[in-house]
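Hi R.,

Here's the chain you asked about this morning:
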Amino acid sequence: MKYLLSVLFLLVSSESFAQMLPPPVPAPIPMITIMGEAKENVAPDQAIITATLTNREQKLDVAKKNNDAQMEKIVQIAKQFSIPKEKIAPSNLNINPEYTYNNATNKQEMIGYIVSRTLRITMDKLDVHERVLAALVDAGIDQVSGVEFTVANPEAISDRLRIKALENAKAKASALAATVGMKLGKPISISVSGGYFPAQPMPMMSMARADMAMEKSSVAPSLPGMMELRESVNVVFSME
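And the predicted structure, written out as tokens:
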């Protein structure tokens, strides 16, 4: 009887001990991490001019009035070149007092106000950007940072390139898996590294050069070259 109780005790103790043990660690899944890339040369279809309107006057209302007058000049120039008003994007109006140092009194004295705002003009016709730039400077808008070339819908190109980048990653991973005698499984995770799409700037044009361009503007002004858009993805594949 004592022997039977001892056996039962050992069996119960063994089962309790087994329940206390952690579950077995599953075998690691063979994986491969790879980066896929894709790039494409595209032709810009938009030109963007950035200009700053700055007016200094003793009276705030005069500075504001002159700034509004310059803004209206830009609207009229845009209308002349069939650029819709909604393609002109002005920033908020900045108003700051202007001071000078008086050596006689050793104090700062306010001499007036500075009113400024920055705007971007987007042109869907690339063959007018030189004439628009020259017209702006001719109208007294001399703080022009030049022209940037870009595309209107870069996301559509990015979507296409991400698919190509994923296909590139799959092809490279399949080749590596075959090298070690395995087959490529399903993707475990996919992350997009982000695209690279730089705008192409043109140097700022001085007033003299702009006036010359206004007088000698050609029917076919200089146009930008191709732009390179890149996309990359990081993919983790299982292997079988």
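The CA atoms of residues 4 and 89 lie 93 Å apart.

Let me know if you need anything else.
M.
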